[in-house]
Amino acid sequence: MSGNEGRLLDATTLRAWCATALDALGRAREEIDSINVYPVADGDTGTNLYLTTEAAFRAVEAVFEAYEGDADAASVPGLDGVARAMAHGALVGARGNSGTILAQLLRGAAQVLVAAAGEAVDGVVLATALRRAAEAAYEAVAHPVEGTVLTVASAAARACPQNEADCRVVARAAYDAAREALERTPGQLAALGRAGVVDAGGRGFVAVLAALVAALGGEPFAGGPVARPARWQPRHPETSRGAEDGARADGAYGGDAAYRGDAAYGDGARRDVACAGHDACAGDVARRGSGDIARRGSGDIACRDTEEWDGSGPGYEVIYLLDAEDEAVARLRARLDALGESLVVVGGDGLWHVHVHVDDAGAAVEAGIEAGRPHRVRITHFASDAARPAPAGGERAPRAIVAVVPGEGLARLYAEAGAATVPARPGELPGSGELAEAVRRAHAHEVVLLPNDADLHHTAAAAAQDARHLGVRVAVIPTRSAVQGVAALAVHEAERRFDEDVVAMTSAAGATRYAELAVAEHRSWTSVGICQAGDVLGLIDGDVAVIGQDVAAIARTVLDRMLAAGGEMVTLVLGEACPATLADELERHVRAHHLAVDTVVYAGGRDAALLLVGVE
After folding, report:
1. Chain segment 234-267, per-residue pLDDT in tens
2. Closest CA to 151 of 304, 269, 267, 35
3. Cis omega (within 30 of 0) on the bond before 220?
4. Is the pLDDT of residue 525 over 70?
5. Tens digit of pLDDT for each residue in 277-315?
6. Quick check: 114 and 85 in contact, CB under 8 A?
7. C-beta of residue 445 within 8 angstroms of C-beta of residue 388
8. Measured distance CA(245)–CA(343) in Å, rounded
9. DSSP letter string over 488-556?
10. What element of type H or E holds 156?
């Protein structure tokens, strides 16, 4: 948070909001997926929200990184530039119905923040931004339904005090109102009431607002409300039967807001898997018969089947980005509304994100071609596994390992052990799209994913969920360091049953303590005191344990502390910047002070940490 202590919203606070929201949605992703029952219980709303927010976060980080690399630039970018990046990133990376709506919410808020460029963005402006966000979301949905994220966002906007200058007060009021509105959603939407859950998209938006409170210096984010409340009971049970698929005769459900079962909006988007993570891949679209999709040539069309479809709705989900003018988009909305349902069109300034469920996918794409230039087209066929086409590119391998690896030397080591690697460069961790693409390229029925970094666990989980819709069985082993990944690889046996192999690898990784030597980039507080820029830090299991200047001395101290609890094997991975004599020195130290402990040394190479240590 910046030095205004949360009273004002600036670029740094907006950056913190995106980062905190991504972490919050990562923690809540599985929970949100599990309560996704409307309109289709396909369990991906949390994943879609996470992937959309990740795209916004990465766009914001790119702006800050550009400023940090420019010596002539101001210390931080302006709020308007960061807000534009957030909105654009979310728009381009939006996934599913829920992500598309979230992108529009962020875009609506960004419009106000950009307009306020050069002025102090206080609570009054923030309240206006949240109100504009809710309005924009409603405008984007062809047929809004109450009891969804729209209801939650609208309640948050209405609760914002209009003349309050403190952003913290405004954000807290919006968050509290959103929580209360979320708890009422089972009484507004029949599907939620029957399942006894709150709306999944609304639950995600509450997490985003909680992250805003935390970014402004409010109470730490605690995960939001319980997403599985006690089963909601309608006030008038007799009204809960008979007309659940159409409009209620009395116009109300359970004595609350009106409900119409055929309204074409829902927050639990069906799967929108593209071949390359966020991006789509091969094929143009041709219409054959009644909306079948043929893929030919080279373009940017992705076509995939989902796992479940009961045949009661449109057969395809069509999503694409569209370069078009406002007038053309207005005509496109009318045409797509006549073709299908769940229509959401968000964006502006020449770039739009289109989402619709239709039976004739070819016609939906052709409508986009007539309106402008569609690209990143994703077409999902709501079909059963039996109808899933055989994977392209030959027979799948039985099992594969995909690992995120820092350093060229470790990448070679992992590759020699049979793993496909994804590089992790300093300060540049891979995104979920890159991990999902690596899983796809592994071309296996079963994949074990090793993130090898605590900060990648949520990203890896989202990538795994994304890849599962391609028919791949994916398990994520929560490795926090590359040395834990090495231990997991050492016990991997492809001939074992998948579950047994995953358990064995997880056990080996968990039994490996890890440490790292790094050089401090700036002065900061640590758990063992203040470090200065240039100090050598010894981190054990992710926490700073020792600070000093001598690399060898710090390494010896770290080894002694780790081996004090016992150990049989020490793994040392030396980065390119390590002294040439360090490996021999540490091996002699282990032999002299720790009996019956073996040492193995690997060269980490360029981009590796200064020193990685593993103790098994």
Report:
1. 333 333 333 233 333 232 222 223 222 222 223 3
2. 267
3. no
4. yes
5. 333 333 333 333 333 333 323 334 444 444 444 455 677
6. no
7. no
8. 19
9. HHHT--TTS-HHHHHHHHHHHHHT-EEEEEEE-SS-EEETTEEE-TT-EEEEETTEEEEEES-HHHHHH
10. helix 149-159
